[in-house]
Design goal:
This protein has about 250 residues and is an alpha/beta fold. It has one domain: LigB-like (Protocatechuate 4,5-dioxygenase, Chain B, 3-Layer(aba) Sandwich). The protein is about 40% helix and about 25% strand. The chain is built from eight helices and eleven strands. Strands 1, 2, 3, 4, 5, 6, 7, 8, 9, 10 and 11 form an eleven-stranded mixed beta sheet that branches. Helix 2 crosses helix 4 and helix 5 runs antiparallel to helix 6.
């Protein structure tokens, strides 16, 4: 077991989700951020089994539409196939007005797909996904996506995952200081404050739009609390603190 991970395997609750409605998970290479992400999935597994997982991720490639959802087919990993929930994705598109159906935005993007093996390890093929890729991450757009997803998922056995790393390529002390400010605003479930801190402090978190949308959707779905489960940097992993990337695992609950 990795020293930065939960240090034990979860007992997967054989029930619908009871409290967990959202996660923030990093998406770097597994050797760097995998143990930190495992804390979020440990929390999810202990709470129950979702039927649908909506995954928000940033667009690193520049391909495809500014806000893009994949609405049909399967995604394949070494652990098997994951089916897209066409019914849920269609409802989100109708509700949002600004999300395009565009698989090309997902074709070369890693931020969403790296979350799938964690889910497959826990649940096998017994869940479906709705993947949304964010190139456009301004506050109003992220809010609109969050509002649409929150309305569609209310009353469903579903969870939202916001895939994001935190500060990129900063000295350890600066990264930790800035990421702490961002994390506290997430814990306050204040999307405007979070977005303002990202902009005014020039924090290079890549998935700030997905995190903003998660906060908004969670509040619509009845979310009351967000908590930090684990925070580390790439410097903690490899011992080079001169230029690090921050990784946070967080959980939003009723």
């Amino acid at each position: 077991m990795h020293e930065f991970g939960p240090r034990k395997l979860p007992v997967i609750a054989n029930s619908h989700l009871k409290r967990v409605m959202g996660l923030v998970c990093p998406h770097a290479g597994y050797m760097f951020s995998g143990p930190i992400a495992a804390h979020a999935y440990y929390e999810l597994a202990s709470d129950g089994r979702p039927d649908v997982v909506v995954i928000f991720g940033p667009n690193h490639t520049g391909h495809g539409s500014a806000l893009a959802i994949a609405n049909e087919g399967i995604w394949r990993t070494p652990l098997g196939d994951v089916e897209i929930d066409t019914e849920t994705t269609s409802k989100i598109v109708r509700e949002s007005q600004i999300i395009d159906v565009d698989a090309s935005a997902h074709r070369w993007e890693h931020s969403i797909e790296v979350q799938l093996p964690f889910l497959q390890y826990l649940y096998g093929p017994k869940f479906k996904i709705a993947p949304i890729c964010f190139m456009l991450q301004d506050l109003n757009s992220a809010r609109e996506v969050g509002e649409a997803v929150g309305k569609v998922l209310t009353g469903q056995n579903a969870v939202i995952i916001a895939s994001s790393d935190m500060s990129h390529y900063e000295p350890q002390e600066r990264a930790v200081k800035h990421d702490e400010l961002a994390i506290k605003s997430i814990e306050a479930m204040d999307e405007a404050r979070f977005h303002a801190i990202i902009e005014t402090r020039h924090i290079s978190a890549c998935g700030y739009g997905p995190i903003t949308a998660l906060i908004v959707a969670s509040k619509i779905m009845g979310g009351k609390e967000a908590k930090l489960l684990c925070y580390k940097t790439s410097g903690d992993v490899i011992g080079d603190y001169s230029s690090v990337v921050g990784y946070a695992a967080m959980c939003v609950t009723k």
